[in-house]
Structure formats: C-alpha cells, structure tokens
C-alpha cells in the first residue's frame, strides 16, 4: 500500500501521533522495567542532555556580553546571515517542489515512477561528504556542462536542496494517499477549476504536512555541514555557521564555537517545539 | 484501488497540466540527483577497474573501511538495545517525564553534526572536558579515539530504531502481553515469544536505516576523531574521502562509489522489507 521510505523515520517525528498516553492501557512497573527506565535515563543524560548543557554553559561562560560579542562578530554574522537566508530559501523551494513531486508521485502514473521513488530517498541514505562530491563533479570547476558553483552562495543553496529533497515529499505523500478524491470530484462537478479545487480542497488538508516537512528541511539546512563543505570551497562568502563553528573548534576557540553552537541549538529546539505543537493541534482536530 | 484513484484523479486535471507537472517534477529530481550521480559513476568507471581496485584496497582505505565497520557495529548494537527498550517503555508503561523523554530522543534529528561533535568534546575531551579529564587520568580515552566516534554516531542515529518500533508496538496493544502474563509467562518469555515476532520487520527496517546513517556520518565524527590520518587510527571512510579531495589526491571517487553502493543497497533492502510489515 504505502511505499517504502527510509525517510519515514525522520518524517515520523512530524506525523501526528495517535491518542494520549492516558487512553491506552499500561503495564504495572516491575523491577525489570524500573531498571530499564533508569538505564535509559542515565544513557540519555550522558549522551544528549549533559553534552548539550555543556554547549550552552560553555557558550555563555563569558556572560551575556561575551556571548553577544562572539555571535555578532563580522565573521560570525556573515556565516549566520548566509545560513539563515539559504535555509529560508531552501525551505520555500522545498515547500513548493516537495508538494509538487509528492502530487506527481501519488496522482500521476508513468513508467519509471518507482525509480523516482527510490531516487527521492538517495539524499537521505548518502553520506553528506559524498553528496558534496557528487554535486561538485557536475557543478564544480570540472563541470561537463560548464556550470561552476564552487565557492558561490548559489552552490550552498544547491547542496542544501539536495540533502533536504526527501523531507516535504515524504511528509506530504501519505496524507495525499489517504485523501479521498470524492470531495475533489464534487468540487469539480460544481464547476470549480483544477486550481480552485487544489487551493480550496486539497491544500488545506496538506498544509500541516507541508509545514512539518518544511520545518524539518529548515532545521536540517540550518545545521548542514558535510554536503556544503566541498561546494563552498572554504571561501569566506560561502561559509555557513556549522563550517564557522568547525573552524573555531580547529583553532581551539571552544567558547566561540560553543556560542555559535548555542545559536544553532536554539534554532533546532524552536523548530522541534514548533513541530510538537503542530502535531498536537492536528491530532486534536482529527 | 490505487489505479482507480489515479484514473479518477485524471478527470479533474487536464492532460496538459498533468504532463507539465510531471515534467517539472522529473526535471527537478534529475538535475538535482540523477544526473550528478550519473556523472560521478561514469567518471569513476572511466578511470578503470584497476584504479578502482587499487584505491579501495590501499592499506589506508582498508583501515578506514574497517574503522567505519567497527564504529557502525557498535553504534547500531547500542541503538538497537536502547531503541527497543525505550520503545517498550514509551508504549507500555506510564511514568513521569515520559513526554520529555520522547521529545529529547527526537532532538538529534534537528541538531547540526558539528554541534553534536562539539558537545561531546566539551564533556569527554581529555584536556578540559567535564568528565573527560578524570577519564583521561584513569587511562580511558573517549575523544580522539573509537569510543567518542561511537558516541557521536549513536547520537546522530538515536531515534531511528525507536521511531520504527514504537508505532508497531502501540498498534499491537497489550492483549497478548496480558494474556501471557496471566498464563504465567516470564518477562523474558514474553519478550522473546511476543514482542520480537511483533516488531521483527520494523526492527530490521530501523537497523538498516541505522547502518546507512552510521556509515555516512561525517561532521560529528570529524570533530570527535581529530581526523588522525596516516596511521589510520581514527580515519573513517567518509573522512578519507574528505582528505583525498582536500589534498587533491586520487581515490575520492572510488571510495565514494563504495559508499554510494552501500547507500543504494540499503534503500533497496528497505523497500523490500517495508511491504512485509503490512502483510
């Protein structure tokens, strides 16, 4: 029925979750489950919680003024400006193209459709550095088609489009498959044109899925490192924040790197909280 | 059912609009993914099979592949144990902080790999890490060594197994579990006879995803490994690709081709596993 998607796991975070914890019956806590819970909490703390706390604590160790000074230095600001604007551009393109591709994959039938289904997942399974190399082979200095994006901001956007391709497609696809075409037919029979039908009937249903996919793509773009590394060529004007943070780490400027990382972390948290709120409101509505 | 949906949908959209949309979608996917992949494949093949074999069988490449395999096995085993365990806790028990725990596990999806690497260095780094200093003086190295690389890989692939297994457990409910309890089955028996068969396919799917993600990890590994090359001690396959490109040495394409093959294989495996879940 549904198509296989390695990105399903990633997009599962964006899918509405059924029911509250109170509705389902639960097992009583035994000694085994208590030990399991304890071990999981310790593991999560050592792996995620304490390290992320260390980033924020180190980033703000010189106080608010020091943090602000690090983050608003010209090099940091330039990287941040490129990261945010490229991520917004990539998110908007993804919102439109992802929805379009999902629509074509679900509603259209053509030879090679299954091939395209597989291709959509490639950016997710591919190592990011290899993704960078692949793009550089076609759109770098040795380009067979004469397009050289090395060291350009357009190149950065292009690399980000590559790695974020599956997100919107994979969140919108299942909703589109589940969508009943009866309402669309009714609208059409009442004289609505295809555009009106899409805008008034299909789009409102897809909107939460599009928003979730776009938010995930935005978060991914904000933090991306491997795939943009090669195409940026290490050139100042094409340097994103994660590359800037890496350079600070290489220079043993841990406080500065942590300040940059704190900003990236904050954006990631805002996106995840926003997604959670969105899921809950969608789940409540239906 | 699918074909009837499609044929009915055709009614509402004109033929011209349909072909137009199809052309836009295909052009986008081809320009972005298919053509670049074709170019790198032909370039690698043009350099010849001999060059391919030499590049992937050099001592440095072999040791890089071996390290990638070691880190991947550790990360996937740890994430499988954690993923299944927490999936059971989240779907079958009620405890305070459950929602927070669930949210925490999803966070790694949205965090930059560089931030992940830095976070681990700040805590486990040998010279000024919170815990790293005492671990270092006790003779246990985490950062710039394999344990740190495993931690980084576990971090970035943390939710993959869990998010596959949890929905299946939730859907299955507790009836069988409770029946087995009443009949006197032990926790281990219930796990082996009920839980494992239920989550079998979702688990395999999650494991394949984790393997692909672990093999491909680059940014976080680059930070925590220190990228020590030459001796080949902390250089994984993805770091080797990076080094070969930066030093303009040959071999990047060939090693990449191996990684591409593994990634494509993983996608195909997953597309074979997925439908079984529904049967």
Question: Would you give an account of this structure?
Answer:
The complex is a heterodimer of chains A (286) and B (279). With 286 residues, chain A is mostly helical. Chain A has twelve helices and no strands. In chain A, 75% of the residues lie in helices and 0% in strands. In chain A, helix 4 runs parallel beside helix 7 (153-178), helix 7 packs across helix 9 (194-223) and helix 9 (194-223) runs antiparallel to helix 12 (254-285). Mean pLDDT of chain B is 88; it is low at 1-11. Chain B has 14 helices and no strands. Chain B has two domains: 1-46, no CATH class; 48-278, MetI-like (MetI-like fold). The two termini of chain B are 17 Å apart. Chain B has helices at 2-12, 15-46, 48-57, 59-92, 98-106, 113-124, 132-137, 146-156, 159-172, 175-182, 187-216, 219-225, 237-246, 252-273. At the A-B interface, helix 1, helix 2, helix 4, helix 5 and helix 6 of A face helix 1, helix 2, helix 4, helix 5 and helix 6 of B.
Short descriptors:
heterodimer, A: mainly alpha, MetI-like fold, B: 279 residues, mainly alpha, 2 domains, 14 helices
Mean of pLDDT of chain A: 88
Average pLDDT level of chain B = 88
**Name given to the CATH homologous superfamily of the largest domain in chain A:** MetI-like
CATH architecture of the largest domain in chain A: Orthogonal Bundle
Q: What proportion of the residues of chain B is helical, as a percent range?
A: over 70%
**CATH classification, class level of the largest domain in chain A:** Mainly Alpha
Helix content of chain A: over 70%
CATH domain fold name of the largest domain in chain B? MetI-like fold
Short description:
The complex is a heterodimer of chains A (286) and B (279). Chain A has helices at 8-12, 31-59, 63-71, 74-107, 113-125, 128-139, 153-178, 182-189, 194-223, 226-232, 241-250, 254-285. Chain A has 286 residues and is an all-alpha fold.
């Amino acid at each position: 029925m549904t198509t296989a998607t390695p990105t399903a796991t990633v997009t599962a975070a964006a899918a509405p979750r059924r029911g509250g914890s109170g509705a389902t019956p639960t097992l009583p806590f035994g000694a085994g489950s208590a030990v399991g819970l304890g071990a999981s909490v310790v593991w999560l703390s050592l792996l995620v919680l304490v390290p992320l706390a260390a980033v924020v604590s180190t980033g703000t160790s010189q106080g608010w003024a020091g943090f602000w000074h690090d983050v608003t230095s010209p090099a940091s600001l330039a990287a941040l400006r490129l990261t945010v604007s490229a991520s917004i551009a990539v998110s908007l393109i993804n919102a439109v193209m992802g929805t379009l591709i999902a629509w074509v994959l679900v509603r259209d039938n053509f030879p090679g459709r299954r091939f395209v289904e597989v291709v959509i997942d490639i950016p997710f399974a591919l190592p990011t550095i290899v993704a960078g190399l692949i793009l550089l082979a076609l759109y770098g200095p040795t380009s067979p088609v004469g397009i050289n994006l090395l060291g350009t901001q357009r190149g950065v956007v292009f690399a980000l489009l590559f790695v974020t391709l599956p997100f919107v497609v994979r969140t919108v696809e299942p909703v589109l498959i589940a969508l009943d075409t009866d309402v669309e037919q009714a609208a059409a029979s009442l004289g609505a044109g295809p555009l009106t039908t899409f805008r008034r009937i299909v789009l409102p249903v897809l909107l939460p899925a599009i928003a979730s996919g776009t938010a995930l793509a935005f978060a991914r773009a904000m933090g991306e490192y491997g795939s943009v590394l090669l195409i940026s060529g290490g050139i100042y004007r094409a340097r994103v924040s994660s590359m800037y943070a890496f350079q600070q780490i290489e220079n043993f400027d841990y406080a500065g790197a942590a300040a940059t990382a704190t900003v990236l972390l904050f954006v990631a948290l805002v996106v995840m909280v926003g997604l959670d709120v969105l899921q809950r409101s969608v789940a409540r509505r239906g | 059912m699918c074909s009837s949906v499609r044929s009915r949908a055709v009614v509402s959209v004109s033929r011209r609009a349909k072909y137009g949309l199809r052309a836009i979608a295909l052009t986008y996917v081809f320009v972005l993914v298919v053509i670049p992949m074709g170019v790198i494949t032909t370039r690698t093949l043009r350099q010849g099979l001999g060059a391919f074999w030499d590049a992937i069988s050099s001592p440095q490449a072999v040791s890089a592949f071996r390290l990638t395999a070691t880190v991947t096995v550790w990360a996937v085993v740890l994430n499988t144990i954690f993923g299944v365990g927490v999936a059971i806790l989240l779907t079958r028990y009620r405890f305070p902080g459950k929602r927070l725990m669930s949210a925490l596990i999803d966070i790694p999806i949205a965090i930059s790999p560089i931030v992940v690497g830095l976070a681990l260095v700040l805590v486990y780094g040998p010279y000024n890490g919170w815990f790293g200093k005492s671990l270092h003086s006790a003779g246990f190295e985490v950062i710039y060594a394999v344990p740190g690389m495993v931690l980084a890989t576990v971090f970035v692939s943390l939710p993959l197994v869990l998010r596959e297994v949890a929905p299946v457990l939730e859907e299955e409910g507790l009836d069988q579990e409770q029946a087995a309890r009443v009949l006197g089955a032990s926790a281990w028996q219930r796990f082996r006879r009920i839980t494992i068969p239920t989550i079998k396919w979702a688990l395999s799917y999650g494991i394949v995803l984790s393997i692909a993600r672990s093999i491909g990890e680059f940014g976080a590994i680059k930070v925590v490994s220190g990228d020590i090359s030459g001796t080949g001690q902390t250089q994984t396959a993805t770091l080797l690709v990076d080094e070969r490109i930066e030093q303009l040495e040959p071999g990047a394409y060939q090693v990449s081709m191996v990684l591409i093959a593994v990634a494509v294989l993983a996608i195909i495996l997953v597309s074979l596993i997925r439908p079984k879940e529904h049967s």
